[in-house]
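Following up on my earlier thread - several people asked me to post the actual chain instead of describing it. Fair enough. Here it is, all 207 residues.
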Amino acid sequence: MIAIIDYGVGNLRSVEKAFHFIGADAVVSSDREFILGADGIVLPGVGAFADAMDSLKKAGMVDVVKETAACGKAFLGICLGMQLLFDYSEEGGERVEGLGIFKGSIRQLPLDMNLKVPHMGWNSIKYNKECRIFANLPEVPYFYFVHSYYLTAEDRELVTATTSYGMEFDVAVGKNNVYATQFHPEKSGETGLQILKNFVGLIGGKK
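Reply from S.P.:
Thanks for posting it. Predicted structure:
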């Protein structure tokens, strides 16, 4: 069973439907004990970093996320859910503390690149083919992005994929049981579904 953490932020049902489409058991939940007892955990998210952190705190999910990420179960962060795993964000011109599971910062995409911000649409990625959630992908896979802020990971060994949008930046990380992507696998067609299948394969959750 996969628990999709419900803390009032993000298009949770689209993530749930994508897992159901590939035949996986997945449930959106805000129940602490259910989440802690799940075989795999997903932390989605869209919107503002500060609001998401406030929502996590109000929902009592901060310790839950940290515990599930540390316990060895398969964990997947998506979009803002990836950013929240890091030390802090500079969104809004202020330093907003994140979960601090990984070292790194979230910064605004430059507005002087003659490109639209937010970065919205399809982009190819350069990925580490040894990363387990990237198994069986095309040589040059494309994924769907919607974001105005980007990750700079302090530990470069964490980074499993980058993309280029006026500049090159980190779009996926992985360490031990914890994986996360800036792009939306659930909105990225067959290639995105393959990411979810690979994640399910890590936990034996497919039926």
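The radius of gyration is 16 Å. That should answer part of your original question.
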